[in-house]
Amino acid sequence: MLNPGGELDLDWVLSTRINLSAIERRAKSLSGRRSVKKAWQIGWLAHAIQCIDLTTLSGDDTPGTVKRLAAKARNPVRRDILEAHGLPLDLHCGAVCVYHNLIETAVEECRGSDVNVCAVSTGFPAGQIPHEMKLEQIRSSVAAGAQEIDIVISRPLVLEGRWQDLHDEVRSYREACGDKACLKTILATGELGDLRQVARASRVCLGAGADFIKTSTGKEAVNATLPVALVMLRAIREHHQRSGHLAGFKPAGGIRTAKESITFLMLVKEELGLESMRPDRFRIGASSLLADIERQLEFHATGRYSAHHRHPMG
């Protein structure tokens, strides 16, 4: 169900408080644990694959690049590895994420599968274009067949404390998506200054109608971190308690290893519960992560680690 949003509750936004030392201890406790093992690890890794937004956002992207990416998203793990673990042969990624000009190629290549097409929009990654152009990008991407839209917020609105303007901006994006596309709102947390600003921006975006809140574009110097994820997840929990709507979460940028993906899944499970681990509530924006997960699955099947190049993206 899409997030209907509502009016800005400025008192709720400004009441945000951050206990930095407690957040850092909580994050450290996760990264310091031993990971899940053996059969349980296989299940967690297979679930992580279903939550990946397989992404290509490079200046040299071509239709061929997207075709290979879509083929990998539809069949992310070699059949012999899946059979060795008794995993479903129709295992697939959550979505492929591309620039607007490659949506039609992605839609065509994903047709007949359960892999969604996601498009970055609103002047990604910096968002420094006029507002009307941002809205037109969203409408055009939805018309081209994108089922999910990853938008970037205007970071100056957060840095200057212009919360009503931020709410109105995200609200307009929600309306531009209509009821045809999921709105995933990128906060670019590495550029917001501190965790209190991250929490406030999360509350505003959720209240305005964001279906997901996402950490980063992947282009910032600092991307997805556990402290940031914890703050955003708790904003989602609070919004759920206030509105009854359970929004989704998408960490993106810098998540490259199977162990890291499991750590983020653990955090989601402990903070929000099993429902929020589903692919319609949790995604990981990544490109190289899938290859490491496939290597881990092959290791558990054969007892040997393979070279990274044996698990290409396409």
Fill in the CATH topology.
TIM Barrel
Q: What's the overall geometry?
A: globular
- Strand order in space, largest sheet: 7-6-5-4-3-2-1-8
CATH class: Alpha Beta
Strand segment tally: 8
User: What's the end-to-end separation, in Å?
Assistant: 33 Å
- Number of helices, where a helix is a run of at least 4 consecutive DSSP H or I residues: 13
Number of domains: 1
The biggest beta sheet, please? 8 strands, parallel
| Average pLDDT taken over every residue | 95
CATH homologous superfamily identity: Aldolase class I
Uncertain segments are none
Identify the CATH architecture: Alpha-Beta Barrel
Order of helices and strands: HHHEHHEHEHEHHEHEHEHEH
Radius of gyration: 19 Å
Secondary-structure-based class equals alpha/beta
- Strand coverage percent: 5-15%
Walk me through this protein's architecture.
This protein is of the alpha/beta class and 314 residues long. The protein has a single domain, classed as TIM Barrel (Alpha-Beta Barrel). It has 13 helices and eight strands. An eight-stranded parallel beta sheet has the order 7-6-5-4-3-2-1-8. α10 runs parallel beside α11. The protein is globular. The mean pLDDT is 95.
Give a brief description:
By secondary structure, the chain is of the alpha/beta class. The chain has helices spanning 10-14, 20-31, 38-50, 63-74, 79-85, 103-110, 131-143, 155-159, 163-177, 195-208, 226-243, 258-272, 289-302; strands at residues 52-55, 95-98, 116-121, 148-152, 182-186, 212-214, 248-250, 284-286.
